[in-house]
Amino acid sequence: MEQVLILRRSPLPLLILAILAVLLAASLVFGQWPDYAALAASLDQPLSRLRWIIGDISEVAFYKHELPALGLLLGAALAHWAHVRGYRWQGFAICYGTGLWPWLFTSSLLGLLLSHALWGWTLASGTWQPTFVAFVSLPAAMVLLFGGGWRVTLTGALLGALLVTPASLLLVNYLCYPLQLPVVIGNVGGMALASVLAFSLCKYLPSLVRDALPAVTPQAIARKPDYGVAWTLRRVLADFSEAPFFGNELASLGLLLGVLLAYVLAPGAPAYGSQLVIQIVAGQALASLVGVLFWRRQWMARGWYPTYIPIVSIVPAAVLTLGGQWQVVVSSAILGALIAPPLAVAISQRLPGHIHGYVGNVLSMAISTLGIVPLVALLAGGHS
């Protein structure tokens, strides 16, 4: 009965309508979307470049479009507002209940903008470049590790643009492209290498992050999860926004509404024009569901487990590389769900204390993608 009352008090239907209204308004402002190829070919035009930059916010889920990006941010903003006020319908507390979402988002966004200012010229090559990586890596991790405040926020943004983006650019262009590897390996490999360097730098130069503001968790009603069906479905949804360190159902809902609306309005625009949005989203959902169910005891024991990893690495990489056949979708989801999370935990547990555990997650993404995608190709009968 209590869950029914909470659901009735939830503004979820209004949220869905509000997000759709904003996204539709954005569609009117931006006008008719070009397909991805046309967008990539016109990046010398200000509007196309703006679309690319906004699309970077949803790039980590392989959606690459302004509508899922805007939906993600709308949902996240509402989730933070609900968290500050302690509303039960907030879902999983955004940013792990730290109350640091404004600082985290500011640092990530500044890192993204600085990356484009410094490295946006690489897009003139005519090939895809990982300009998005600073938004979902070091800046956010630094805020979560050291706390809020302008010093940490600006340090994270600067190091993200100066270290993470060029590291990923180098790996993508000089490793992934020549060897025909999924580019996600270069993306996350650059995040890991640059982040280890950045965290080590902060250890030996603590003035970079000194005087950080501690996390302030608003007063809320503590409720122990029952890890039942409702919790499982909520956790699967929250996994979709875990990569930018949000981990919240409302943020994920905005992301998914945005990408599905983008696909309906212009199928050739999101997900690099692959027209595989439905297969990608289905595989991502299946991967999270299998992971949450299989690793349920780990969730119960630890309070958090990285079941989101195949959502932003193995599954979309396999589908985009090998095609949208059901064999590819199902095998990549299951293998990713079973292999990647425990590998991430094993790596993270061996990291020094001054390095954020997300480094283990991204290393797991790189290793798992490198090993699983070829295996999926064999299991799927060599389809490509």
UniProtKB/TrEMBL annotation:
Transmembrane segments: 12-33, 67-84, 96-119, 131-150, 157-175, 181-202, 250-270, 276-295, 307-323, 329-347, 359-380
Keyword Magnesium among record annotations: no
Keyword Aminoacyl-tRNA synthetase in record: no
Keyword annotations: Membrane, Transmembrane, Transmembrane helix
Protein name: Integral membrane protein
Protein's organism: Pseudomonas muyukensis
